[in-house]
Write a structure and sequence with these properties.
Blueprint: H1 3-6, E1 10-17, E2 21-27, E3 61-64, H2 73-83, E4 89-92, H3 97-110, E5 116-118, E6 129-134, E7 140-144
Parallel strand pairs: 2-3, 3-4, 4-5
Antiparallel strand pairs: 1-5, 1-7, 2-6, 6-7
Helix pairs in contact: 2-3
Length: 145
């Protein structure tokens, strides 16, 4: 098997908010709260206790097991989407209603869509170019490009 074949990625997931996006993956080793953890003006991770402090989520495909509350994270995510400093898309292993609310509110208020997908995240590495697309039956397709 070639290195390219071993790095192939094609996952089927479930949308919490449907859409399409592409970008470099930013894989976080720990859950992140947008409230107090992200600067909505810049997209920088500002949580001083988070191992990815200083990384920037803007335009990336943010990949993590789950979000980490607080309910105010939805307003921070919606504001980041409005400002253009949010991730291009978010991939989670477990559904997160708080992040879903933020993305849904931004789509409703600002007509800006940011897909939120639940699927297996194993094998995704920071820096991988990832595409989120629409599959048959409204399934999410996550692939390495």
């Amino acid at each position: 098997m070639s290195e390219q074949e071993s790095r192939a990625l094609n996952r089927v997931g479930t949308f919490q908010l449907a859409g399409e996006a592409q970008g470099a993956a930013l894989v976080l080793s720990q859950a992140l709260s947008f409230w107090g953890g992200i600067d909505a003006e810049t997209g920088d991770i500002t949580d001083h206790s988070h191992p990815d402090l200083g990384n920037n989520v803007a335009g990336k495909i943010l990949v993590m097991a789950s979000g980490r509350g607080s309910s105010s994270s939805s307003s921070v995510l919606a504001e980041a989407i409005r400002r253009g400093t949010a991730p291009a898309g978010i991939i989670l292993e477990r559904p997160d209603p708080i992040l879903a609310v933020g993305a849904i509110v931004a789509e409703f208020l600002y007509e800006i869509s940011m897909p939120l997908v639940v699927c297996d995240i194993s094998g995704i590495i920071s820096g991988d170019r990832i595409a989120i697309g629409l599959g048959e039956g409204a399934q999410a397709i996550v692939s390495r490009i």
